Amino acid sequence: MVLSELRREMVLAAITEFDQLGRDAFLKLYGYRPAIGYFLVHGGRRYDSKAIAGVAYRGVSGRPLRPDEFSGGNATVARVLGGLGFEVTKPGQAAKVPSVEDLLQKVDSLKPAVSPATGAQKRHQPLTLLWAIGRAARSEPRLTSWESTYRELGWLIEEFGLEEDRPNPEFPVLWLYHHGLWDLPGHANVPHASGRPAQQWMKEQQPDSGLRPWVYEIVTGQADIRAQIVVRLLSAYFHGVDHNALLARVGLDAVTPDTGRVRDGSPTPGRVESIVERVIRDSLLTEQIKRAHDYHCQFCGDRLALRQGFYAEGAHIRPLGEPHNGPDEPGNLLCLCPNDHVLFDRGAIAIRDDLAVMDMTSGVSLGPLRRAPNHDINPEHLAYHRKVIAGQE
After folding, report:
1. In angstroms, rounded to a whole number, what is the distance separating the alpha carbons of residues 218 and 44?
2. In the Cβ-directed half-sphere of 176, how many Cα atoms lie within 13 Å?
3. Considering only CA atoms, which of 179, 46, 56, 50 is closest in space to residue 112?
4. Residues 6 or more apart from 47 whose CB is under 8 A from it?
5. Per residue in 177-208, is it b (16+ CB within 10 Å) or e — as a string?
6. Beta strands 313-316 and 309-311: pairing type?
7. Which residues contact 41 (CB under 8 A, 6 or more apart)?
8. How far is Cα 240 from Cα 190, in angstroms, rounded to an integer?
9. Which of 248, 258, 125 shows the shortest CA–CA distance to 193?
10. Which is nearest to 274 in space by CA: 349, 337, 346?
11. pLDDT of residue 3
């Protein structure tokens, strides 16, 4: 049988090329029609099995097979690829592609090392994810060279890691690989994230790497899920860090839906005159919060649709600046419609510790605060708002 000489690394090389070119370009380049029933499933993504096998054969003969040189199906392609340890679906059989819930669960179950000096969790893993998510948000290629990854992650860890941290980008990449979020295509027997042998392996292999295909597809195509992950990482691992500076550093800049302007990460606050002068904080962090809620108001659920997109406002629970000095962090931010934002800022609406939204003029509950996964509100800021802004306590 012509395919019997295939080896796993040849198939992985063809998969990598498929990812780099995209499905349509890959099939067109090698003259294959789209698969109908038989798909190779790898990293949560489906691949046209006959095309992958035919191109992988280049590792045997020095050239890929043409489609008319061999037959596909269960007895040939599926049998050979299955024997190499790959999953191949049959007609009518659905591929097991991980879900958004799987991704959020994996993000929530990171296990960063703990600093022996301060007891704080190290930031290598979350910084690596933020860097990759920033690339995905800008539609940059999923995979990048180890030279580029090592350089950019090293700088990022030095800038935003703990004070005593060494960069060591090898360790978060390897840990995320074994956690199921990171991809090292074409490599087997990948070491665990520990010790000098792991660093030596990365130095010798110089692997291209990036988010797993299914992760990349989710964070590229679903801005609200991407924002939920970003907010979760900021809340969990970056206390005392300028979140807007970090977001700008990894390229997670925002497009404000009311103006369509692209923010460069250093917006100059504007001012408008109302009853009091109010600073407009159109920050990168605020935009992530709004995206995490898909621009739905957390009080009434409304979402304003403009021709340029959806509109909502970021509301700080404990106001920024003197005399309140509230922090610009996820736990102090809400996504509100303009009407509820004004009422909340004036103390006509408040939030109890059980997250019930209260109309302070009538004492009537307006229902529970609408939530987005991974966006947790700090109860200390709620207590401050009730006491100082709403005058309840």
Report:
1. 11
2. 26
3. 179
4. 15, 18, 39, 40, 41
5. bebbbbbbbbeeebbebeeeebbebbeeeebb
6. unpaired
7. 47, 86, 87, 88, 89, 95, 96, 97
8. 35
9. 125
10. 346
11. 87
In whole angstroms, give the CA distance from residue 363 to residue 354.
15
**Global confidence as pTM:** 0.66
Q: Which residue, among 328, 336, 330, 335, has the nearest Cα to 376 in the 3D structure?
A: 330
Token pair belonging to 59: 């590792």
Listed range (109-113, 150-154, 173-177, 332-336) with the worst mean pLDDT: 109-113
Structure tokens at 332: 């102090």
Quote the DSSP letter at residue 320: S
Instruction: Give 212-224 pLDDT, tens digit per residue.
Output: 888 888 898 888 9
Residue 263 confidence (pLDDT): 36
The HSE-up count of residue 273 (CA atoms within 13 Å, CB side) is: 0
Q: What is the phi/psi pair of residue 354, to 5°?
A: -85, 10
Dist. CA 218–CA 371, nearest whole Å: 20
φ, ψ for residue 315, nearest 5 deg? -115, 130
Q: Which long-range contacts (CB under 8 A, 24 or more apart) does 339-346 make?
A: 339/300, 340/297, 340/299, 340/300, 341/313, 341/315, 344/299, 344/315, 344/385, 345/278, 345/315, 345/319, 345/389, 346/389
93 falls in which pLDDT band (50, 70, 90)?
A: low
SS3 state at 333: strand
Report pLDDT for 218: 87
Contacts of 182 (CB under 8 A, 6+ apart): 128, 173, 176, 209, 210, 211, 212
Three-state SS letters, 29-90: HHCCCCCCCCEEEECCEEEEHHHHHHHHCHHHHCCCCCHHHCCCCHHHHHHHHHHCCCEEEC
259 pLDDT higher than 50 = no
Would you give the distance in Å from CA 152 to the centre of its chain?
17
Q: What SS3 state is found at 166?
A: coil
Amino acid at 208: D
CA distance 100 to 222: 10
CA distance 379 to 351: 9
Here the tokens at position 54 are 């035919």
Rounded Cα gap, residues 372 and 57, in angstroms: 47
